[in-house]
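Chapter summary example: a protein plus guanosine-5'-triphosphate.
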Amino acid sequence: MSRGVIVIPTYNEIENIEIILEKVFVLDLGFDILIVDDNSPDKTYEKVQKIIDANTYDGQLHLLIRAKKEGLGKAYVAGFKWCLKRDYLFIIEMDADLSHDPKYLPAFIENIKEYDLIIGSRYVKGGGVINWSPLRKFISYGGSTYARTILGIPIKDVTGGFKCFRREVLESIGLDDIISTGYAFQIEMNYRTILKGFKIKEVPITFKDRIAGKSKLSKKIFIEALLNVVMLRLNKKQIFKVD
Ligand SMILES: Nc1nc2c(ncn2[C@@H]2O[C@H](COP(=O)(O)OP(=O)(O)OP(=O)(O)O)[C@@H](O)[C@H]2O)c(=O)[nH]1
Ligand SMILES: [Mg+2]
């Protein structure tokens, strides 16, 4: 059992999954990886199971298959619960689509010694985005500004999904009470972490748009994010009390 685990949710990532696993394990950081697959129609989970069966990564790769697609948030919560049943000290969130470069992981680990949540950030000095259209950039940056302003939180990249939590954070922010399923999930996790008084640091990353596979950002997910930010603000007192 290693000290850290990387949770990677997958839905139709068959073209990316082998590459991302290789890119992480070649760094030899000693982390486990948990893939949380929502029964992908392209059978991403079968490919993962084959790699596990071949013991390519020496028992460091794990797979959690869920019955159906219920959104990123539900997949992460199921993955986090799996991790908390084991004795990992920190838990990392990462996408499967190669947007998040594993080369930043050592910086996360260095910083998690002093902080409770590390956010890989596109919007601090030294961070950025490659290959996004101006519209996509506007939506992301605008979304972060919107959430930051309404919730009154000092985070520049509120929607990013490349992060590292100390296990104590996940144990105390009320995983069962999380209301967000899509992109709003990242915002809600940050908000809950801040309201519980944990320390957060943003570390610069350059985010690359996916080359293979399809984006899951939909109008529904976008509208959920806009509405949930307001809901979260209105429920501040309740979230604050959560144990
Ligand atoms: N298990 C599971 N994984 C999901 C689900 N939705 C998205 N993912 C995965 O979560 C990661 C991030 O997904 P998103 O950022 O929502 O969508 P994306 O397809 O990366 O979108 P873009 O980054 O805009 O291209 C990817 O690895 C997806 O495969 C879901 O409902 N269930
Ligand atoms: Mg993505």
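Key point: The beta strands are 4-10, 32-37, 61-65, 90-93, 117-121, 128-130, 163-166, 200-204, 206-208.
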